[in-house]
Amino acid sequence: MSARHLPPYWVVIPAAGIGSRMRADRPKQYLHLAGKTILEHTLDCFLNHPQLMGLVVCIANDDAYWPDLACSADPRVHQADGGSERADSVLCGLQKLSGLGASDGDWVLVHDAARPNLAVTDLNQLLETLADDPVGGLLAVPARDTLKRADAAGRVQETVDRSVIWQAFTPQMFRLGSLREALVGALAGGVAVTDEASALEWAGHHPRLVEGRADNLKITRPEDFQWLEQRWKA
User: Fold this and answer.
1) Is CB count within 10 Å lower at the N or C end of the chain?
2) pLDDT tens for residues 165-175?
């Protein structure tokens, strides 16, 4: 499917976290990597894509770094308040999209602020695969290593069948209305919403897994940053 036949879409980037595990002097999305902040690299893949309708970045109220980024002045980029949890930020982002003219039937991609190595081929694969899907889905990678289930004392209880285990990545792609309803319902039910797919699962849906590249890395710890820094220097 050529780019002009891929479905149009909106993007929400929850970026209100502080990334305490990075032990840095600023939120991890504002660390500099190859001449730009991580967040700028994250946005680039979407801002360079022809089917983007608009993008919302959800930031903390006391974020002093976002206004200094050139992309904050891009007319396709909008700001929304970030919440205390990821799901709260995403809901604020969806509300902002509705105010920008997005309809409940529009596709929305939610992507981690600190996942800057998304390949355009993966983005296109996600859009193409899910264009007519009744639910939506997410980029993911099949588990490669042997997996163990542990008890509270840290001892192995069993080896898990890795053939049915996938590691969830982003973007995660769902219809705006369905995602909003699932998030609102899950939060009201006290469900731990770790990603958008988990909210859709709680609502009784079965998101589709779309295999992507394993190097679509989320920067969580210093070694993640160092790995990507070395890779981009090569």
Assistant:
1) C
2) 999 999 999 99
- The token duo for 233 is 């220097």
Q: In Å, what is the CA distance from 185 to each residue of 11, 48, 103, 198, 199?
A: 21, 34, 19, 12, 8
pTM attached to this predicted model: 0.94
DSSP 154: S
Selection from 148, 215, 140, 202 nearest residue 173 by Cα: 140
Distances in Å between the Cα of 101 and the Cα atoms of 43, 54, 92 are 21, 10, 15
DSSP 152-186: TTS-EEEEE-GGG-EEEEEEEEEEHHHHHHHHHHH
pLDDT digits (tens, 9 = 90+) for 198-217: 999 999 999 999 999 999 99
**Of 122, 141, 119, 117, residue with least CA distance to 228:** 117
Give the Cα separation of 187 and 192 in Å (integer).
Answer: 7
CA distance 11 to 32: 23
- End-to-end CA, the chain: 31
Burial (CB count <10 Å: 0-12, 13-18, 19+), residue 16:
buried
The CA distance from 97 to 74, in Å, is 16
3-state secondary structure of 147: strand
